[in-house]
Amino acid sequence: MTTISVSNPNQALSRPKYGSMSRDRRWALRWSYFFLTLFAIFFLCPPIYMLITSLKTSAEISAATNPWWVFNPTLSNYIELLTTPSYLTFFRNSAIVSIFVVTITMLISVPAAFALARMRFWGSATLATGVFLTYLIPDTLLFIPLFKMFAVFHDWTGIQLINRWYVLLLVYPTLTVPFCTWIMIGYFASIPKELDEAALMDGANYRQILMKIFIPVALPGLIAATIFAFTVSWAQFLYPLAFTTSVDQLVLPVGIITTLIKGDVFNWGQIMTGALLGAAPPLIIYAFLMDYYIAGLTAGATKG
Amino acid sequence: MVDATIDTRSPAKAARKSSGLKRIFQRKSSIAFFMALPLILLIAILVVYPAFYSVHLATLNKSMKRFVGFGNFLFLFKRETFWMVVQQSCVFAITAVIFKAIIGFIVAHFVHNIPAKGQRKWRGMLLVPWVIPPAMSTLAWLWLFDPSYSAFNWILAHFGIGPIPWTGDGNWARFSVILVNIWIGSPFFMIMYLASLKSVPEQLYEAAAIDGANWWQRIWYVTLPMMRNIIAITALFSLIVTFANFDIVQILTAGGPIDKTHVFATWAFRLGIQGNDIPLGASVSLFMVPILAVAAIFILRDINRRGNEAA
Asked: Alpha-carbon distance A274 to A81, whole Å?
């Protein structure tokens, strides 16, 4: 809208060919930066407010001062939280669960993706579609039957799964494996057929083709899938909330919400510190591997 | 990959009598099957079976001893809360997806406008809400919405706007829930649109500019048609995720005040896990299936079509 009104009177000026164009661009640029700044404020406001609150004492939080400014910055929330055994347990549980889930996911989805992308077998096309459909099934549909299934499983075998952190190792892969398989199929399918034909000629078997050619060539996809699996298992909230209750079995998101909120007394300084530290691992990974992160994000919907 | 496999298969079919070739083919397919077996087992045991088990559960009574057929569903139909949940889930998902799509589109456009050098930095900043685990960022929102210490109300008070009951009043709570959802979801749209904006050929814009198209016409006649596919598929994806959302509502309002923000997922959790009525909870969550199925069919159709175009 601005572009047109500015460009017309400008056409007769000194630089006839590109003058209007660059003027246009400059205005468009100014508007872009202005609105981008507004959106950035909107998008970054909660995390920044988390940081602000985490640096305050309880007294300052409940004082009627400017909530957007820290008058007496302190690290006491961090120190207190990092010396609380239960918080460290949550962190450890989250880390163990996430690392195991990432490993399990990769062990299941990479060979499966290789088989589905390169070797046909009876029903493989249906399976590939099925994998994609599974990715669309949300956790909120499955948590109740799974809960009951685990209870029945306990009655049959005596193995208790409810309220044990390792139950999460069973259920998280249902969220990570379909997506990781799906994007790995995409990456594997884009590898030129000549590459593995040449390897077959040289007498390589399928395991060697997968390990020596496909995994190294599709490494960016593998990293994207790994990041995805880690982010999902770190952030998952519903399954641990439904399946675990004891303090020593909780993972981070549920732990913060169920233990730091004591009755009606909200210790917001500590809650924000806990949430910020909980958000740190994915944020750090994102800061260093942003391109892989984005590749994984867009691959899910665009690869087909 | 498709052509290549057909190549190996059709000679195998033609020379079916040559048992050597057939054996190799069989061996290859059985290796492939075993490589995919863990995936098949995982999907069968932990996704497909629970999905059907949930249908079975929904037909039992509370103690799960007696078959009641559609009893649970009929019971739900008679409850006013159920219809409120249906309405809220739909309004919640549709409003949030529309705003996410619009904001995502606008932001993607602005990022695309600025010089390529700075794009990375802005993109990185604007994607942060998507990276933070939703449970953690919703806590920050809960604190921003706090009834007595709300930092938003502190700012609004300077403009003479009275304290807003962000999570205390039914309609404001609905607004807050949708707002948080938009905040978390729009970066995803932004990234998808940005990727697709970059794939629109520059010549089309030049041609439009020569034809005298203004800013709005360029978007309406060039950008939108070129991005139609990606807009549709992103919106459908987001519809599924938003419709089935649990974290935001559970943490922000836990369905309150007086069930005014419950969606299917949180209500199913309340009834099934907290209320110990597993069959009723399963029945509630099953009501998500129709909408999810419709969205899934459209996504699948789109992906298949694009797959055929590529081949």
From this structure: 7
Chain A hits for B195, Cβ within 8 Å: 298, 302
Write the DSSP string, A166-189: THHHHHTHHHHHHHHHHHHHHHHH
pLDDT (tens digit per residue) in B111-130: 887 877 878 888 888 888 88
A250 close to A91: Cβ distance less than 8 angstroms: no
Tokens representing residue B132 in the block: 């933070």
Among A residues 5-64, those touching chain B with beta carbons less than 8 Å apart:
28-29, 31-33, 35-36, 39-40, 42-47, 49-50, 53, 61-62
CATH topology assigned to domain B79-310: MetI-like fold (1.10.3720)
| DSSP character at residue B166 | T
Which pLDDT does position A264 carry in this prediction? 62
- The owner of tokens 């508007």 is A31
CA dihedral A206, A210, A211, A216 (to 10 degrees): 150
What region, left, alpha or beta, does residue A123 occupy, with left being phi > 0 and alpha being psi -120 to 50 degrees? Answer: left
Residue of A nearest to B218 (CA): A1
What does DSSP assign to residue A247?
G
Query: Residue B60, SS3?
Result: strand
ipTM, interface predicted TM-score of the complex: 0.80
How far is CA A143 from each of CA A147, B53, B114, B244, B263, rounded to the nearest angstrom? Answer: 6, 11, 45, 12, 15
The per-residue pLDDT for range A17-30, each reduced to its tens digit, is 455 566 777 777 88
Closest CA to A111 of A220, A207, A199, A217: A207
Facing B135 at nearest CB: one of A46, A67, A235: A235
- Can you give the residue ranges of every domain in chain B? 2-57, 79-310
Number of neighbours of residue B29 by Cβ within 10 angstroms: 17
The mean pLDDT of A45-51, rounded to a whole number, is: 89
Q: How far apart are CA A155 and CA B225, in angstroms?
A: 57
Q: Which helix (H) or strand (E) is A265 found in, with range?
A: strand A265-266
Q: Is the pLDDT of residue A103 over 90?
A: yes
**According to the model, what pLDDT value does residue B142 have?**
87
Cis ω before A138 (30° cut-off from 0):
no
Name which of B130, B138, B101, B92 is nearest B291 in CA terms.
B92
- Residue B178 DSSP class: H
Q: Is B311 on the interface with A (CB under 8 A)?
A: no
Size of chain B, expressed as the number of residues it contains: 311
> Above 50 in pLDDT, residue B178?
yes
Question: Are the CB atoms for A54 and A272 separated by under 8 Å?
Answer: yes
Q: Find the DSSP H helices in B15-68.
A: 19-43, 49-57
